[in-house]
Specification:
The relative contact order is 0.18. The protein has a single domain, classed as Glutaredoxin. With 155 residues, it is α+β, with helices and mostly antiparallel strands. The strands form two sheets. A four-stranded mixed beta sheet has the order 2-1-3-4. Strand 5 (137-138) and strand 6 form a beta hairpin. The protein is built from five helices and six strands.
Length: 155
């Protein structure tokens, strides 16, 4: 077993140790969908996150977006990174595109300059931190270490 797999297993174990089950299942919005009720998705995540001792991680974007797909692939290819995300956050994907800009759902958020943009919300739903994916780039690719630093940083 290599070190990466060992760390991934450890991170997954730590994620399972968080007492989220006591608060019931966490809302899961793990794909971009123009037809979803984004305000309801955000409200459910904001309500559930404090009970699970987590913050909300809002990922704005769409399946049409190259960086959004690359970020999805990054989490899929790195189980430790995905476990870190899931241990600290309730992730909610909010579709932004020509079919639905979700302006009402994102009205209280800073203006989007790039997709995906990641927003961290506190227990009241206030944005405490944000970053467009351009902050995670190393050249033309997303750098897992930069994404990890963002996820590990506390406001």
């Amino acid at each position: 077993m290599n070190l990466r797999h060992l760390l991934a297993g450890l991170a997954a174990s730590l994620a399972l140790a968080v007492p989220a089950h006591a608060a019931g299942p966490l809302p899961a919005v793990d794909r971009y969908d123009a037809t979803r009720d984004a305000p309801a998705d955000l409200a459910a995540a904001i309500a559930a996150a404090p009970r699970a001792h987590r913050q909300v991680l809002v990922l704005t974007g769409g399946d049409w977006c190259k960086d959004c797909r690359e970020l999805d692939r990054l989490f899929a290819a790195d189980p430790a990174l995905a476990a870190l995300r899931d241990a600290r956050y309730v992730p909610v994907k909010v579709f932004v595109g020509s079919e639905n800009r979700n302006e009402a759902a994102l009205a209280a958020f800073p203006k989007l300059s790039w997709l995906p943009t990641l927003f961290v919300l506190d227990g009241e739903g206030r944005v405490v931190r944000s970053a467009p994916s351009t902050e995670f780039h190393e050249g033309a690719k997303l750098d897992p270490a930069r994404v990890r630093r963002f996820l590990e940083t506390r406001p």
